[in-house]
Amino acid sequence: NANGGLFNSAMLDGDGIYVDGRLLSVTRAVAKDDADRLTEENSAKRKAVDKRNMYLAYEGTINVNKAAETELELPKMDIEKRRRAIKEKKEKLKNPLFFISATRLSVRNVALGVDEKVLKTVFREAAIAGLQDQVVNMKEVKAEYQLKKGLPVKIVLCKIVRDTENLKAGEEPRSRGYGFVEFSQHVHALAALRKLNNNPAYTEYSGRGVKPTKGTSDADKTRLIIEFALENHGKLKLREKRMNDAKKRRDEDLMLRKAQGEVIEKVERKSRGKRQREAKASRGNNEPVASDEPASKKSKKDPTKVKGPATTPRKIRPNQPNDKKKPAAAKKGAPAAASRKERKGDRSNKEEKSFEDMVDSYKKKLFSTVEDSESRGRWFE
C-alpha cells in the first residue's frame, strides 16, 4: 500500500520479499533533489567508516570493459594496459590487508626515456595547474584529508621501477615503464591525477616517448595511466617497525655516549664543491714556493746569509784547461762506485765469512781440549 505496510511487515519478519525464489532489493522512491541529497549523505557516511579508502579505488579508471573500443578513442595498447590494471586491482582488493593509499600514485605507461627528475617536475606542475583549474571539489574530500591553507605542493617520493636483473656494466638499469609518485597532501595527489590521467597533452611522457605531430589525432595518442596505489598493511607495519627499531638503536647509542662523558659535536654538512675548494686551498698552503733552481742547490743555500751583488761568470775558452769543473771521481784510475747489487753481495759474503770463522774457532776449542787431555795422561800413570 501507499504507506509501505507490506514492505515494513516483510522487513520486520527478517525474511524480506521473495519473488520466484529471489530476494528483492526494495528502496523507497524519492524525488530527484532528495535522491541527490541522500546520495551525498550516504557517501559521506560510507567515507567516514571506510578505513581502506575504497572510494578512491576507481578514481581515474576508464570503463574499458563495457565501452566499445571505437567509443573509447584510445590506442589499442592503452586499452589492454588499462584492462590489465583493473583486473590486478580487483584481485588484490579481495585481500583485506590491501588498502588504497591517499597520497601515493601509481603511474603506468611511462616512456622509457623519462627519469625520476622529469617525472617529478611533470607531476608537481600538474598538481599546481589542477589546483588553479579547481579540478578538486573539497566536498569530495574526507575531513581528515582536507587541505590546510598555505601548504605548498611537495613530492615526498618519486621512483621509476627499473630492470636490475638484465643490468649491463657501466649503464643505468632500463626502465620498466611504471613508477610511483607520493605527495605530502591528498588534495595535491588528487589534483595531479585528474590533470594528467588520460590527457593527450602529455603524450610525450608516455608510450614510446615520441612527441606527436600536429596532424596526429587524439585517438592515436598514448596517455599516462594514473591511479591511487595499493598498499599492504603487513608490509607497511614491517617497514614502520624497522624504522622504529633503527631510531631506537640510534637513541640508545646517543644516550650511552653521553653517559660516558663524550663530547658530541655536530658536524657541519658541507657540499661537495665546498669540500673540494677547502682541500685545494689547504694543498696550496702546504706546497713550497716554486723555483727554477735544482733541489741540490736549494739545500746548500742558507736563507740567513745576505746575498752579494750578482756577478757574471767568466767565459771559458776552449783551449784553456778547466780543472775546477772536473770532479775528483771523474779522473782516470779512480775506482767506480759499487752498485746496489754488489754491495748486497759483499754484505752476504761478509756474513758467511763471519759464520765460518765462528765454526772454526769452535772446532779449535773442542779439539784442543781433547788433545790436552790425551797429553796429560791418565791419573794412575
From TrEMBL:
Residue ranges of coiled coil: none
Keywords associated with the record: Nucleus, Repeat, RNA-binding
Pfam families per the UniProt record, alphabetical: RRM_1
Compartments, as annotated in UniProt: Nucleus
One GO cellular component term noted in the UniProt record for this chain: nucleolus
Residues covered by region (Disordered): 264-381
GO MF terms held by the record: mRNA binding
Keyword Mitochondrion attributed: no
Record flagged with keyword RNA-binding: yes
Protein name as annotated: RRM domain-containing protein
